[in-house]
Design goal:
alpha/beta, Spore Coat Polysaccharide Biosynthesis Protein SpsA, Chain A, 3 domains, 35% helix, globular
C-alpha cells in the first residue's frame, strides 16, 4: 500500500455534519481528506474501463490508502482458501448486472465465493450470472435454487442462511451498483480488528445511470447504535459486510415483512451488543436510476420534503414493527437492549408521560437536529392508527445513504 499526496486539506472535525453530499474520502474520522472527485462531472468512458477511471482519476486527488499495484482482471480459479462470501439477489436487473459482476472479479481480495439467487426475473439476469459463473467466476459461484418471488428481504435471508454454515464474513451486494476494487479489502481489514458480531458499512459515491459521479452519500453526524437505528437506517445494504458471528446472529432471526435486510441486520447487530462500524470512506459506486428499490436523495431539503410527504403514520408503523420483532428475539438481545425496547414499546402504546420517558433515552434520535425534531413531534402525537399501511415496506421510507428512514 502507498499513500498518494493530495491537493488540499480539510479536517473532518471542522465539517462533520453537513446539509449536502460532500465529495470527500477519509481514512479515519480525524484523517485529512484531500479529494474532490465530483469536481469532474465527466461520465465513465464505459463499464470495461471503470477501473482505469477509478485508479488514474481518483488516486492523484486523494490522501487515502490505495493499492500500489492494481492487478489486471483475470478469470478466477478454484482456491483452497475462501476469505469472504458475497450475497447477490437478482430481479430483472440485466441492464446493469454485468458491471457489478465485473467489479467482483476486479476485487483486490481474490478469495471470495458468490452465493446468488434469482427472485423470478423475466429478463436475462439468470443467463448473465450463469455465464459469469462459467467464466471469470468459475469455481466460485453457488446458485441457490429456491423458487418464487420472495422480495428483497426474503431473498437475502435465504442467501444468508445458505451461506452462514461456511463460517465466512458475508457481504451484501445489489445488482445495479459497482464495487470499488478495494471494497472487500477495506471491510475485511476492519472486521479483523473487531471480534464478535460486527456489521461494517460505508459511504457511497453517488453516480448516475452511466456511472458519472455527482456526489457522495451523507457523512454521519452521530454514532450509529440501536436507538438511532430504530429511527433511521444508516447501513446501506450494498456496502454491508457482516462478520461471521454477525451473519450467524442475523440468520437466526425472523425479520418483520415490512423491513429490509440491511436495516434489520443493523438492528440485530446493535441490539445484541455487537458493533456497527460506519466507514467514512466510499466503497461503492451507488447507481441512481428510476428502478432503484431505495434511492439516495443528496440534498437536505430533498430528504426533508420526502419525509414530510411520506408522513407520520408510515414512519410509526415501521418503528412499531421493528420494536415488536426485536422483542420477539429477546434471547438474542442484551439485557440493556431489552430494557430500552420495553420503554419505547410503552411509549408507542401508552400516554404522554410514557412517550416523554422514551424520548429521554440517550441516542433515541435521528442524524440531524431537523430530522430529530420532526421525529419527536411525530412520536409525541401518540398512537397511530395504521390500517391504511398494512404491508408497508421499508423501501418506501428513504433516508441517509439511500436507506429507509
Amino acid at each position: 500500500m502507498k499513500r498518494i499526496p493530495g491537493k488540499c486539506s480539510l479536517n473532518i472535525e471542522e465539517d462533520w455534519c453537513n446539509d449536502r453530499a460532500e465529495p470527500l474520502w477519509t481514512q479515519t474520522e480525524k484523517a485529512e481528506c484531500t479529494m474532490d472527485l465530483c469536481a469532474d462531472k465527466t461520465a465513465f468512458p464505459g463499464v470495461e474501463s471503470y477501473r482505469t477511471f477509478l485508479y488514474e482519476s481518483a488516486k492523484p486527488r486523494n490522501d487515502c490508502l490505495v493499492p500500489a499495484d492494481v492487478p489486471e482482471p483475470v478469470p478466477l480459479s478454484e482456491s483452497s482458501t475462501v476469505h469472504v462470501g458475497i450475497l447477490l439477489s437478482t430481479f430483472n436487473g440485466a441492464r446493469y448486472l454485468a458491471s457489478q459482476l465485473e467489479s467482483f472479479a476486479a476485487q483486490t481480495v481474490r478469495e471470495w465465493r458468490l452465493y446468488w439467487r434469482d427472485d423470478g426475473s423475466d429478463d436475462e439476469s439468470v443467463a448473465l450470472v450463469r455465464t459469469f459463473a462459467e467464466g471469470a467466476g468459475a469455481g466460485r459461484c453457488v446458485e441457490v435454487p429456491v423458487p418464487g418471488h420472495l422480495g428483497a428481504m426474503g431473498s437475502y435471508m435465504v442467501l444468508l442462511r445458505e451461506a452462514v454454515p461456511s463460517g465466512l464474513p458475508l457481504a451484501f451486494a445489489d445488482q445495479d451498483d459497482v464495487w470499488l476494487p478495494n471494497k472487500l479489502e477495506m471491510a475485511l481489514g476492519t472486521l479483523a480488528a473487531h471480534p464478535g458480531p460486527v456489521l461494517y458499512c460505508s459511504r457511497q459515491l453517488l453516480v448516475d445511470e452511466s456511472l458519472a459521479p455527482f456526489g457522495e452519500s451523507f457523512r454521519l453526524c452521530r454514532e450509529p447504535g440501536l436507538l438511532q437505528g430504530l429511527t433511521q437506517n444508516i447501513a446501506t445494504g450494498c456496502t454491508i459486510v457482516l462478520s461471521s458471528a454477525g451473519a450467524g446472529l442475523v440468520a437466526q432471526s425472523r425479520p418483520p415483512d415490512s423491513s429490509l435486510h440491511d436495516w434489520w441486520s443493523y438492528l440485530m447487530i446493535a441490539g445484541s451488543g455487537g458493533e456497527v462500524i460506519a466507514d467514512p470512506r466510499p466503497t461503492v459506486l451507488y447507481r441512481q436510476h428510476g428502478g432503484n428499490l431505495v434511492g439516495a436523495p443528496h440534498l437536505m431539503r430533498l430528504r426533508a420534503w420526502a419525509a414530510l410527504r411520506r408522513g407520520r403514520t408510515r414512519f410509526i408503523t415501521l418503528l412499531r414493527a421493528h420494536v415488536a420483532a426485536l422483542l420477539d428475539h429477546a434471547d438474542l438481545l442484551s439485557a440493556e437492549t431489552r430494557e430500552k425496547l420495553d420503554i419505547i414499546d410503552r411509549g408507542l402504546t401508552g400516554g404522554l408521560s410514557a412517550r416523554l420517558t422514551a424520548l429521554r433515552l440517550p441516542g433515541f434520535h435521528r442524524q440531524t437536529w431537523q430530522e430529530t425534531l420532526l421525529f419527536r413531534c411525530w412520536f409525541l402525537l401518540g398512537k397511530a392508527w395504521c390500517t391504511d399501511t398494512v404491508g408497508l415496506g421499508a423501501e418506501e421510507l428513504g433516508g441517509v445513504g439511500g436507506q429507509p428512514s
